[in-house]
């Protein structure tokens, strides 16, 4: 699988992952340059960068500059570019927190578009699971599930196992579980769920 990390402007320390390419999203591209990460592409309207920062980006990678007035968000256009370049595993890093409207827009891309997308920052990783069996590696302390539609799930290898439990969009009982060792087994029998692994910010 071809993997790419789209780095948005809220990124602090960008993780180095073997086999991962990097695309900067607006000011996130500057964050990549500061960490000396090689960029495949920089995408955005760059309204939050200085002329000097934009010139530095143009010297280091291909820049796809968007108009400030547009229908698509910078993240949405970066995802489109990534898919066009052939990536089939996309992590959007640094797109959570900050402005609530931007955060919700990124969540909508995850929840309501059929995209190979994961949202991630220093304390959270979020992914949509469709029906199937999954081995989930422990990345953060807590493991939570929210139903996007009427769903049935099972969890094992966790502090509070579930067996073919019905989960409705209004339910919140599947929050703050913990993976017991290093991995958990998850089965989505029916439906579509949002999986979140998270840590406390002071962890």
TrEMBL record:
Pfam families: TPK_B1_binding, TPK_catalytic. The keyword Kinase applies. Residues 132-194 form the Thiamin pyrophosphokinase thiamin-binding domain. CDD domains: TPK (cd07995). This is Thiamine diphosphokinase. GO terms for biological process: thiamine diphosphate biosynthetic process; thiamine metabolic process. Its EC number is 2.7.6.2. InterPro entries: Thi_PPkinase, Thiamin_PyroPKinase_B1-bd, TPK, TPK_catalytic, TPK_catalytic_sf. The keyword Nucleotide-binding applies. GO terms for molecular function: ATP binding; kinase activity; thiamine binding; thiamine diphosphokinase activity. Keywords: ATP-binding, Kinase, Nucleotide-binding, Transferase.
């Amino acid at each position: 699988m071809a993997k790419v990390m789209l780095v948005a402007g809220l990124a602090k320390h960008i993780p180095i992952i073997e086999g991962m390419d990097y695309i900067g999203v607006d000011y996130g591209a500057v964050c990549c340059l500061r960490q000396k990460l090689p960029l495949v592409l920089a995408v955005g309207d760059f309204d939050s960068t200085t002329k000097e920062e934009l010139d530095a980006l143009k010297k280091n990678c291909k820049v796809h500059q968007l108009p400030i007035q547009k229908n698509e968000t910078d993240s949405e256009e970066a995802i489109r570019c990534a898919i066009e370049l052939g990536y089939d595993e996309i992590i959007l890093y640094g797109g959570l927190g900050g402005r609530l409207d931007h955060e919700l827009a990124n969540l909508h891309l995850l929840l309501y578009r059929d995209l190979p997308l994961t949202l991630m920052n220093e304390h959270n990783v979020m992914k949509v699971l469709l029906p199937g069996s999954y081995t989930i590696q422990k990345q953060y302390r807590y493991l939570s599930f929210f139903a996007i539609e009427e769903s049935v799930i099972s969890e094992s290898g966790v502090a509070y196992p579930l067996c073919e439990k019905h989960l409705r969009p209004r339910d919140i009982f599947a929050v703050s579980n913990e993976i017991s060792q290093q991995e958990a087994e998850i089965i989505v029998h029916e439906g579509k769920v949002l999986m979140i692994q998270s840590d406390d910010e002071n962890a």
